[in-house]
Specification:
Order of helices and strands: HEHEEHEEEHEHEEHHEHHEEHEHEH
Strand order of the largest sheet: 7-8-10-9-11-14-12-13
Structural class: alpha/beta
CATH architecture of the largest domain: 3-Layer(aba) Sandwich
Distance between the termini: 25 Å
Strand content: 15-25%
Largest sheet: 8 strands, mixed
CATH topology of the largest domain: Aminopeptidase
Helix content: 25-40%
Number of helices: 12
Length: 439
């Protein structure tokens, strides 16, 4: 992420908010309300903090942001670190929050059940455009502990052979995936709006019509439903669950349980954390988690293998297909590779493609090293590009601080900021699906 510094006035304002939060005067918040603590740390120290179970997020050069309450800050000080307040995690809720529908939380964000109902409604209302799929099961469902099916929807103006889980269908494909990290709330809402824009807009919007006449658009709006259930269970104080709900590794509790699904993919797995309580715990083996298996199975079912096996084998200029995985936060468009500081063999083409999307959202285009500042192994976009040659990127939605920043931005930011900024970028990605490496 490219973190942004708070202005002097913003620091004063957020300091007042912090004081209210920690004194219990800012509404129904947890007793030890989590905030972002800015901590000076080297890369090695940041890794050690993560392995020790701290919730470590990227910060400015030479610092990290650690999420937690006063107890976490005290633990950091006991270890010799110097945490200072950076920003709130929870944002101000609207006055009408208590009148929201039962399938929403934290100002309007939708639950997993609401997303499931939405996909069913879209498929029912637009049978000529939409096909709903169950692509797998969540970890809890595989264990008979409740859980959910993992669902996808395919949108196109249907002709023979369209949306049929085929790698040889005539239309190119754009694949959008959201909320693989459960607490990154805005991403699922962006997927919801993208689905509605295409399905509802087909009859009246020339751009939506053009996309669906020529392209298959696949969307997985909630890739980590068990994790989202945990987040939503906090209501107006969402729980900060990042990973799935796999609690088979002992010693972890609360939101420390689970496997980071964006470190569990089968391509270049194995370079992240082996500590079960770490937020980047990669799991016991590559592709061990059913949610990852579902996403990879879908990708292999709709995209042909268009790339060689070597790290330096480029996807050919004739390769088709685009993919965006939505994350937050940082205002970045991250291009491969994630697993290494080396650039991908399609680097120049990726930068042109990224620049076209950034023309809409204004995000910084670059590799992990150039944006978030660290390597990531076993990620979804490295898989779809590395295994299949699909032009794949990560969007880090939103800034690092402020009302529309962090993991839990104010719900109104979705319509005021995130959707207006990213609608055009998603349109660009969909239109590029036929020839992404020729942009």
């Amino acid at each position: 992420m490219a973190s942004k510094s708070l202005s002097r006035l913003a620091l004063v304002a957020t300091g007042v908010v912090l004081s209210a939060l920690l004194s219990g005067t800012a509404g129904a918040q947890p007793a030890d309300t989590p905030v972002f603590w800015r901590v000076p740390a080297t890369a090695a120290q940041a890794q050690a903090l993560g392995e020790a179970g701290f919730d470590v997020e990227e910060g400015d050069a030479g610092t990290v942001n650690v999420v937690g309450g006063r107890a976490v800050a005290a633990k950091l000080r006991a270890l010799g670190y110097r945490p200072s307040f950076f920003d709130t995690v929870y944002k101000e809720l609207p006055a009408e929050t208590n009148r929201l529908a039962a399938d929403t939380f934290y100002g309007g964000y939708r639950t997993v059940t609401a997303h499931e109902n939405h996909l069913a409604q879209v498929a029912s209302a637009h049978p000529d455009l939409a096909t709903k799929y169950t692509i797998g099961q969540s970890w809890k469902k595989t264990k008979g502990q409740g859980g959910h099916d993992i669902q996808a929807i395919c949108l196109t103006k249907k002709q023979a052979g369209d949306c049929t889980l085929s790698t040889t269908s005539a239309k190119p494909k754009f694949f959008l995936m959201a909320q693989i990290h459960a607490r990154e709330l805005s991403t699922g809402e962006l997927a919801w709006r993208w689905i509605d824009y295409l399905a509802d807009g087909y009859a009246t919007d020339a751009t939506a019509k053009s996309i669906l006449d020529t392209t298959e658009v696949w969307v997985v709006p909630i890739a980590n439903p068990d994790g989202v259930d945990v987040v939503a269970s906090g209501g107006n104080s969402p729980k900060l669950q990042r990973k799935n709900a796999n609690n088979s590794r002992g010693g972890c509790s609360g939101t420390n349980i689970g496997v980071d699904l964006n470190r569990n993919s089968t391509f270049k797995w194995g370079g992240d954390s082996n500590s079960a309580c770490s937020e980047t715990y990669q799991g016991v083996s590559a592709g061990s988690e059913p949610e990852v298996q579902a996403v990879e199975k879908l990708a292999r079912a709709i995209f042909p293998d268009q790339r060689g096996t070597g790290n330096n084998d480029p996807a050919p200029t004739t390769a088709k297909g685009t993919m965006i995985t939505l994350h937050s936060y940082g205002n970045d468009i991250i291009i491969p590779w994630g697993f290494t500081q080396a650039t991908s063999p399609n680097d120049a083409q990726y930068r042109k493609f990224g620049a076209k999307m950034a023309a809409s959202n204004g995000y910084l285009v670059g590799t992990n090293e150039e944006t978030v500042g660290y390597d990531t192994t076993g990620t979804t976009d490295d898989f779809t590009y590395g295994e299949l040659g699909v032009a794949s990127v990560t969007f880090e939605v939103g800034s690092s601080s402020g009302t529309c920043g962090g993991f839990l931005p104010k719900y109104t930011c979705v319509d005021s900021t995130f959707w207006p900024k990213n609608k055009g970028a998603l349109v660009t990605a969909a239109k590029a699906a036929a020839a992404p490496y020729q942009q």
